[in-house]
Fold this sequence. Notes:
By secondary structure, chain A is mainly α. Helices cover 72% and strands 0% of the residues of chain A.
Amino acid sequence: MTFENSSEQSVNEVVGDDSGSGVGGATVAGAELGGATGAGGVADVTQAQESPRGRETKALAIAVAGWLVPGLGHALLRMWARAVACFLTVGVLVVLGAGMRGNIFSSAGGDAFDTLGYVADLGSGGFYFVARSIEKLGADVSHANGDYGTRFLATAGILNLLAALHAFEAARGHKA
Amino acid sequence: MIGNMIMGAIDVSGIRLSHFQGMLIFAVVISVAFGFLSRRRPADRIRYIVWSLFLFLVIGIGIGWAMYPFSR
């Protein structure tokens, strides 16, 4: 009886998730279902044949893809809703931040704060260059809008790094 | 090049937001991102997003009011 209940709960979690038979999601689902049914079972067999080193490499590649193009890491894992959410949230923050003429830090920063800002901005991957091409007039932080824009851009980068880390953990088979 | 395409489609230069609009957009975007990343079921996600958004706004406005005496 307990087994039935836990299985049902696991099925609900899988159905509720945006993932289909993604690498990470399927592994977790397969593990929870005992690897017996559906796409989770198939993925489990595939993953069982895959060496731990191969899985780590694949997870790293997914994380890098997710960093370069926000949401791509989750898309590769077939977590569609999360992929779309990451792409849109990071995209909105970048477009608004650049539109508000926030400061986009470059590698030629003068102090530690500039370097930190550059790392944060670079976190948005390919969108960093989108922001640079949107903001043709340069930064204007003499008004609150520009200051908010700077925060939006940095937040977009950190958020994307978080999403890439999440995709990495999911690809490694950890519950995410 | 991609930026030029976006600029061509939507003119985003010189966006002006009030303090509240800025806070609201930030809160919505972060709540949605965290909700989707940290929860799996749609109902849980919606509940998380609404609760997180509520806390963002209440705490943000609360801090704003707390700082009011020192603003001048």
